[in-house]
């Protein structure tokens, strides 16, 4: 059976339409929610991820799971054969519609890169919506690094034009290190230079007509901002000043059609808000949108990129405040039709006549629906998890506690359904570490809770979204106070009677995997076992692999924060481990070398410690293969059952 036939037979045939009736998310049948689901059920890849409607609402572009593998799919609405494009060994980083016939996408993967050997390289490609053609953009040089291919403007006149900011070299003093702006015709790959790279400038900002108006960069503590009125004007320097790490300078970010200019920046208290910006005085006006105690994360604009239609932020969950009346009305209507969950607008056509709606809750993987404004109908597109569908599993809430030095910490708590006292506990720190957890469906946490464990996911100091002061509190505290925050979560839950402090394990991935190893090495009196997926064991080796590791942007910043990374690297202290360790790592992890886990396993074995190492030959850093997810959850369940049984 071909992939196209498989898609049609397994997904579109299951579509159902709702017209005015309520959609209910239903509790799982058994008292201990999720116990009837296997590890393979929890590990099922989302049928669809990151769906995006085309401008006229007739097609959907998304990452599609078929037979446990991920593909890029462009799906016509109302019939017709979808275009399914294999990703092979590449990551799909982002995708944008350019017009009805063309998209532009960013992909990443390992490739030979001159004298630097094998590097993780990102590149932009134009894709024809019928799947018949792909067009590499900027083929004269491979792009590398953080600023490799940033879409800063898409034409809104129907032509297949985009403007990309592109960095084409990895190291300072090489041609192409400072990003330049080029305009591409994505259907042909032809380009023209709009702005040459300028020293110190990493990000470029356009207005709705595509004029490159602002350049901004923070390099080794020197913050620089350039401004001009249009592409034909000369540049004016707004700022060229020294700043502290993580400190920013207000700049124009969004140019509205009525002449208003907005800036998304941190206020005096370090919390990021959306402000009015005065171009005459080059200064901030009053804040227009803010969230108490949390950063505004981003904003949404219309297709012409000249009207503000929404702002988004993370408080206890993911929140979008819609400012456009049509989208606000759609949001209100679909929420009224959901019983036992919530509904969020994910994507929409240019005229807001159609929208993709995510229906779910923090304890359910939910589903995607296509909402049609004219008819009021909602058609099922795909389930977030085809095995669990709309079942509600284990309850999720947000808790607050004080770290031992008094710093307030917010954490996400998942409990096995129907149980809340004297539970075995799994501490699950997030990756990053410049990231955060919030209330949403988390397949790791839900699986572990379904097996009878409480799961706590602390937003330790250094986590993002709580303002500059909270981020800075984590500087130099990797493996130190950041670990204290995790340990203090155990003490808090024990005081509340929720967790049994004698039955605790720590489980994490990426930086969370490092925290799990560090916890086992530093505090074996707290943890009975540790599980690290793709975790860092050797800080110095990781920094040699990626100079931007631990958010290192300044030449001397990291060495000043932590002069000796070796003393917080678990690999150097194998003899300290007194609890069993499970290590899992993908051989094809393009972000964090598999050697971080294999060498840790070697060190632990040499010290006669209890360690299991599972190498996943086709595995990557993001669990894009269902088989790897299943293997991990089954190994995790067996390991926890042996070393920290729930009963």
What does the secondary structure layout of this molecule look like, with pairings?
Layout: H1 3-10, E1 17-19, E2 23-24, E3 26-27, H2 39-43, E4 48-53, E5 59-66, E6 69-76, E7 83-86, E8 91-97, E9 102-112, E10 118-128, E11 134-136, E12 143-144, E13 150-154, E14 161-166, E15 180-185, E16 191-195, E17 203-206, E18 212-219, E19 222-227, E20 236-242, E21 254-255, E22 261-266, E23 272-278, E24 283-289, E25 296-301, E26 308-314, E27 318-322, H3 325-336, E28 338-339, E29 342-348, E30 354-361, E31 364-372, E32 377-383, E33 391-392, E34 396-402, E35 408-414, E36 423-427, H4 443-450, E37 454-459, H5 468-472, H6 481-495, E38 499-509, H7 511-522, E39 529-533, H8 539-545, H9 557-561, E40 581-586, H10 595-606, E41 611-616, H11 626-643
Parallel strand pairs: 2-28, 3-33, 36-37, 36-38, 38-39, 39-40, 40-41
Antiparallel strand pairs: 1-32, 4-5, 5-6, 6-7, 8-9, 9-10, 10-11, 10-12, 13-14, 14-15, 15-16, 17-18, 18-19, 19-20, 21-22, 22-23, 23-24, 25-26, 26-27, 29-30, 30-31, 31-32, 34-35, 35-37
Short overview:
With 647 residues, the protein is an alpha+beta fold. The radius of gyration is 25 Å and the shape is globular.
If you had to describe this structure to a student in words, what would you say it looks like?
- The radius of gyration is 25 Å and the shape is globular.
- The strands form 10 sheets. The protein has an 8-stranded mixed β-sheet with strand order 34-35-37-36-38-39-40-41, sandwiched between helices.
- The N terminus is likely disordered.
- The protein is an alpha+beta fold and 647 residues long.
- The relative contact order is 0.09.
- It folds into 2 domains: 381 residues, Prolyl oligopeptidase, N-terminal domain (Methylamine Dehydrogenase, Chain H); 250 residues, Rossmann fold (3-Layer(aba) Sandwich).
- The chain has 11 helices and 41 strands.
């Amino acid at each position: 059976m071909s992939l196209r036939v498989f898609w049609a037979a397994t997904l579109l045939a299951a579509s159902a339409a709702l017209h005015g009736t309520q959609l209910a998310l239903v509790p799982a049948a058994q008292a201990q929610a999720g116990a009837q689901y296997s590890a393979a059920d929890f590990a099922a890849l989302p049928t669809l991820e990151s769906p995006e409607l085309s401008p006229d609402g007739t097609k959907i572009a998304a990452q599609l799971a078929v037979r446990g593998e991920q593909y890029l799919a462009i799906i016509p609405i109302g019939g017709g054969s979808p275009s399914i494009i294999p990703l092979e060994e590449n990551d799909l980083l982002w995708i944008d519609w350019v017009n009805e016939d063309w998209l532009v996408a960013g992909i990443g993967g390992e490739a030979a890169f001159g004298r630097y050997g094998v590097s993780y390289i990102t590149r932009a490609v134009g894709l024809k919506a019928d799947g018949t053609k792909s067009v590499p953009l900027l083929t004269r040089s491979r792009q590398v690094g953080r600023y490799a291919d940033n879409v800063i403007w898409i034409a809104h006149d129907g032509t297949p034009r985009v403007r990309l900011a592109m960095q084409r070299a990895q190291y300072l003093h090489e041609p192409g290190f400072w990003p330049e702006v080029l305009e591409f015709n994505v259907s042909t790959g032809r380009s023209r230079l709009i702005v040459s790279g300028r020293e110190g400038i990493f990000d470029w900002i356009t207005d709705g007509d595509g004029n490159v108006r602002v350049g901004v960069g923070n390099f080794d503590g020197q913050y620089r901002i350039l401004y001009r009125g249009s592409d034909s004007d000369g540049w004016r320097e707004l700022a060229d000043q020294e700043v502290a790490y993580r400190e920013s300078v207000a700049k124009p970010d969004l140019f509205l059609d009525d002449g208003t200019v907005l800036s998304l920046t941190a206020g005096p208290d370090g919390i990021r808000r959306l402000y009015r910006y005065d171009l005459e005085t080059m200064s901030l006006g009053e804040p227009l949108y803010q969230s108490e105690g949390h950063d505004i994360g981003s904003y949404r604009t219309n297709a012409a990129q000249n009207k503000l239609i929404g702002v988004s932020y993370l408080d206890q969950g993911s929140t979008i405040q819609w400012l456009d009346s049509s989208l606000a009305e759609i949001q209100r209507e679909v929420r009224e039709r959901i019983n036992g969950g919530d509904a969020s607008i994910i994507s929409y056509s240019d005229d807001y006549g159609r929208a993709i709606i995510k229906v779910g809750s923090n304890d359910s993987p939910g589903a995607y629906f296509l909402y049609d404004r004219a008819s009021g109908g909602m058609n099922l597109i795909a389930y977030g998890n085809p095995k669990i569908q709309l079942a509600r599993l284990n309850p999720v809430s947000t808790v607050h506690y004080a770290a031992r030095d008094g710093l307030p910490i917010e954490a996400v708590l998942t409990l096995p359904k129907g149980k809340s006292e004297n539970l075995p506990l799994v501490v699950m720190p997030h990756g990053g570490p410049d990231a955060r957890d919030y209330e949403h469906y988390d397949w790791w946490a839900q699986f572990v809770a379904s097996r009878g464990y409480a799961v706590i996911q602390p937003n330790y100091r250094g986590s993002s979204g709580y303002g500059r002061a909270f981020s800075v509190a984590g500087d130099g505290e990797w493996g130190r106070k950041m670990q204290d925050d995790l340990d203090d979560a155990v003490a808090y839950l024990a005081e509340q009677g929720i967790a049994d402090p004698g039955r605790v394990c720590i489980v994490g991935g990426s930086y969370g995997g490092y925290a799990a190893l560090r916890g086992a090495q530093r505090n074996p009196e707290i943890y009975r076992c540790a599980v690290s997926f793709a975790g860092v064991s050797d800080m110095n080796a990781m920094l040699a692999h990626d100079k931007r590791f631990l958010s290192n942007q300044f030449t001397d910043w990291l060495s000043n924060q932590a002069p000796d990374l070796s003393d917080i690297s678990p690999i150097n202290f194998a003899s300290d481990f007194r609890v069993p360790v499970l290590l899992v790592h993908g051989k094809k992890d393009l972000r964090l070398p598999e050697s971080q886990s294999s060498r840790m396993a070697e060190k632990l074995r040499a010290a006669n410690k209890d360690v299991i190492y599972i190498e996943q030959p086709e595995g990557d850093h993001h669990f894009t293969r269902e088989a790897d997810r299943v293997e991990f959850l089954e190994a995790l369940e067996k390991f926890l059952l042996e070393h920290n049984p729930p009963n």
